[in-house]
Amino acid sequence: MKKKALGLVAAVMLAACGTKEKATEKVLNIQSTDEIQSADTAFAASNIATITANMNFYNGLYTYDLDNQLIAADADDMPTISEDGTVYTIKLKETATWSNGDPVTANDYVYAWRRMVDPDLGAPYAYMFDGTIDNATEIMAGELAVSELGVQAVDDKTLEITLENPAAYFTDLLTVPAYYPQNQEVVEAAGDQYGATSDSAVYNGPFVLTEWDAATGNTWTFAKNVHYWDVDNVNLDAVNFQYLPETATALNLYDSAQLDVIELTGNFAVQNQNNEDYQTYPIPRTNYIEVNHETPGLDNLNIRRAIYQAIDREAFVDNILQNGSIASNGFVSREVAWNPDTDADFRDDATIETDYDLEDAKEKWENGLAEADFDSLSLEMVAADDEESQIFAEYIQSQLTENLPGIEVIIRTMPSSARFAALSDGDYDLGVTFWQADFGDPINYLERFDSTITRGNYQYDELDELVAQSRAQALDPSGRWETLITLEKAGLDDYAVQIPVYQAILENPHVSDINRPGQSYINYRWADIQTAE
Predict the structure, then answer these.
(1) What is the pTM for the complete model shown?
(2) Closest C-alpha to 293, from 125, 467, 500, 495
(3) Contact 517/64 with Cβ under 8 angstroms?
(4) Distance, CA of 488 to CA of 466 (rounded, Å)
(5) Contact, 311 vs 500, CB < 8 A?
(6) Among residues 203, 223, 230, 256, which one has the fewest Cβ atoms lying within 10 Å of its Cβ?
(7) Is 509 left (phi over 0), alpha (psi -120 to 50) or beta?
(8) Contacts of 359 (CB under 8 A, 6+ apart)
(9) Is 151 in contact with 159 (CB distance < 8 Å)?
(10) First and final C-alpha spacing in the chain
(11) Sheet of strand 407-414: strand arrangement
(12) Between the CA of residue 62 and those of 92, 131, 169, what are the distances in Å?
C-alpha cells in the first residue's frame, strides 16, 4: 500500500514570475546543496544531486506518479510474472526514444545491467543486483561472464528478467537509476569520459542535461527533452540548478528573485516560519552517524552504545533544526513501508530500545574504556560542507564532548563527493551522513547492515543471516516483515552498527506538481509554474 510520506527538511519556493526568464518560458531556478558527480547511471549513488539528476534525465521501466503509485515509464505496462515469482517479462513502449533519436531497446537494458555488475567497473549500486538478478553474485565475484546475467532481450521491445529468488519489491526496484538503460554505442564511443560531461551522454527521460561537466560543474540545467515519449505533458522548459551550500547566500538570491527554491536550516528556518511561502514536504531520509568498526575504541560495543545513548535527538530537532525534522533512533525512515497485515508503519512496529540515556551512556563509556584499556579516545568525524551537515556535525561534537569524559571529536569538513569517497574508502572514524529511500521497502535500508555492503568494516554473522533470510521470504510477506524487524533491532540494539539521529523544506502556490514520492527522489516531469503576465 502506497502512502504519502511525512516531511523533513525545510525548503522555499518562489513563483517563476519573479525570475528573469522570458514570460513565455517556464523555468525553475533551484539551489542545490550537492554537486552532480556523474551523468553515468552506473555511478548515480554518490549524493542526492546525482541521483535526483539521473532520475530526471533518464527513464527506467517504472516510476512513481503524483499519487505515489507505481506506474509504467519506458515499460508499456506492468510486468508479466511467472507463477513462481522469478521470471519477469516486460514490454517496452514503441515510442521510447533516446535524445539523439535512437529507439530505446531491450538490449539497452541488457547492456546497462551487464555493465553494472561487471566487477571491472566497480559500480557503487551493483549490490542491488547481488542476490537479486540470477547469476549476479557469481559475476560480481568474477566467477561467471557478464553475459550470464539473468536478463535477455527476447526482441527489440521485450525484456525477460530471471531472479535468483522471488523479490516482493522487484518492480519498485526497477525505478532506481541502477536499473536504467544505457545506449551502448554512445557509452563505448565516450570511453572513460562517459558521463563526465553533459554532452558525453544521451538521455531517455523528460529532460536532457546541459551545460555541465564534472570538473567545474557547480551549475547545470535540465532542458525539456523534445524526443521524450510524453513530451506533451512536460510543462517546464528548463530547471536550472546552482550549487550553493551556504543558506545565507541562497536566501539573498531568493530574495532578489534569482532563485525559486532554496533549503532552509537552523535559524534561517526559524526566521522564515511566518513567511507565506514556508511549507514542509516529505523526504524519506534518515540522517545518522556512520561508525568505522576498525577504529580502535569503536570496535568496542560498550563505547559504540555509549555514543548512541549520549545524543539528545529530541533537543536537536526541536531546538537546533526547527525545520520539521523528527528525532529517530531507528534506521528505516517513517512512512516508507507498512505491515502487510495491519498496515502499521515499520517505524511503529520496529521499536528500537537504544536511545538517549545519559546515565547509562556514561556507565557504558567507562566500561568500554576499561575493556579497551583506554583512558581517553580521540575521533575524527567527516562531514559534508553544506550547512545542515555542519550543524549536525557540530551538535554531535558538542553532545559527545560534554557527555562522555575523555572523548575528543575533530570535525573534518569536505565537499559531499569527498565525504562519500572517505566513507567508501574507510578513511574515517565517524561520518555524518544519511540514507534516503530508493524504493519503498525496509530492505533498502537494512541490507546495508550486511557485511558485503556496509562501509562500516564489520561482519556480524547474525545480521548477514537475517538479510539472507528476508530475501528468501518473498512469498511469505508476514514472516519477512518480522525478519526485517528482527534485523533492524539486532543491528542497532545488539551491535550498534551505526547511530541514527533524525529523519529529515517553503512552497509557493505558483509552483505545482513537483513530485516528491515517499519512496524515491524529486521528479520534475509533471512540475508546472505560473509565468508572468
Answers:
(1) 0.78
(2) 495
(3) yes
(4) 10
(5) no
(6) 256
(7) alpha
(8) none
(9) yes
(10) 42
(11) 326-327, 498-503, 285-291, 430-436, 377-384, 407-414
(12) 11, 21, 12
Pairing of strands 219-224, 87-91: unpaired
Torsion angle defined by CA atoms of residues 399, 403, 405 and 409, in that order, rounded to the nearest 10 degrees: -10
Cell numbers given for 264: 532552509
Alpha-helical runs (H) found in 176-246: 184-190
Query: Do the beta carbons of residue 403 and residue 362 sit within 8 Å?
Result: yes
**How far apart are the C-alpha atoms of 177 and 199, rounded to whole Å?**
19
User: What dihedral do alpha carbons 469, 471, 472, 476 form, nearest 10°?
Assistant: 100
Distance in angstroms (rounded) separating the CA atoms of residues 78 and 418: 39
Cα(149)–Cα(162) distance, integer angstroms: 9
Q: Please give the grid coordinates belonging to residue 265.
A: 536550516
Q: Which residues pair with 153 in a beta bridge?
A: 159
Distance CA 491, CA 442 (A): 13
Q: Mapping DSSP to helix (H, G, I), strand (E, B) and coil, where does residue 510 land?
A: coil
Could you tell me if 381 and 409 are in contact, meaning their C-beta atoms sit under 8 angstroms apart? yes
How far apart CA 236 and CA 29 sit, in angstroms, is 11
Check if the beta carbon of residue 46 is closer than 8 Å to that of residue 122: no
Report how far Cα 180 is from the mean position of its chain's Cα atoms: 16
> Pairing state of beta strands 27-32 and 238-243?
parallel
* Residue 144 CA to its chain's centroid (Å): 30
Q: CA dihedral in degrees (502, 507, 512, 515; nearest 10)?
A: -10
Each residue's pLDDT, cut to its tens digit, for the chain (533 residues) gives: 333 333 333 333 333 344 444 457 899 999 888 888 899 999 887 678 888 899 899 999 999 888 778 899 999 999 999 999 999 999 999 999 999 999 999 999 999 999 999 999 999 889 899 989 999 999 999 999 999 999 999 999 999 999 999 988 899 999 999 999 999 999 999 999 999 999 999 999 999 999 898 887 789 999 999 999 999 999 999 999 999 888 889 889 988 888 888 877 667 777 777 777 776 665 778 899 999 999 999 999 999 999 999 999 999 988 888 777 889 999 998 878 899 999 999 999 999 999 999 999 999 999 999 999 999 999 999 999 888 889 999 999 999 999 999 999 999 999 877 888 899 899 999 999 988 878 888 998 999 999 988 999 999 999 999 999 998 898 899 999 999 999 999 999 999 988 888 665 444 446 677 776 655 678 888 788 776 54
Residue 495, number of CB atoms within 10 A of its CB: 18
